[in-house]
Amino acid sequence: MDNTDMRILDELATNSRITMKELGEKVHLTGQAASERVAKLEDHDVIEGYTIKVNQDKLGYSVHAFMTIMIQHTNHHPYHSFIKAQGQYIVNNYKISGEGCYLLECKFPSNEILDNFLEKLNAYANYKLSIVINR
User: Which keywords annotate this record (predicted)?
Assistant: First the structure.
């Protein structure tokens, strides 16, 4: 990995749909050289895949929340089953160290649905809730 590879990664993180010719121009390479570098980064699993950024508000999910999940016992299976069943609201479920067991990132269409989710979650875990005000 050199500075050019890092610049390629920065450009692809900003716009993964950029053409190899445009990418090459931005990092001072030919399109073919940029393409070869990208292929090498993919082959070495530095680039694991490409994704899109979705505007959750436009999809009707205006409430963005983070929850620190604390489970008092060692059996986390019921919590995981609950999270799978609530998949439409779950963005990420990170296992963490520190204050909690998991950091749960969620999206909800309304505060009422969030409240309903939290009431159900209480059967499996305690939590600390943080609502995203602005990004």
Answer: DNA-binding, Transcription, Transcription regulation
* 35, 47, 83, 94 from 118: Cα distances, Å: 47, 36, 12, 18
Q: Which two tokens stand for residue 90?
A: 């779950």
- pLDDT tens digit string along 76-131? 999 999 999 999 999 999 999 999 999 999 999 999 999 999 999 999 999 999 99
- What are residue 11's DSSP bridge partners? none
Distance CA 45, CA 125 (A): 36
Which value, in Å, is the radius of gyration of the alpha carbons in the chain?
Answer: 20
Amino acid at the residue 43: D
Query: Which domains occur in the chain, in start order?
Result: 3-43 (1.10.10.10), 63-131 (3.30.70.920)
List strand residue ranges (DSSP E) for the chain, in order. Answer: 63-70, 90-95, 102-108, 126-131
**One-letter amino acid of 5:** D
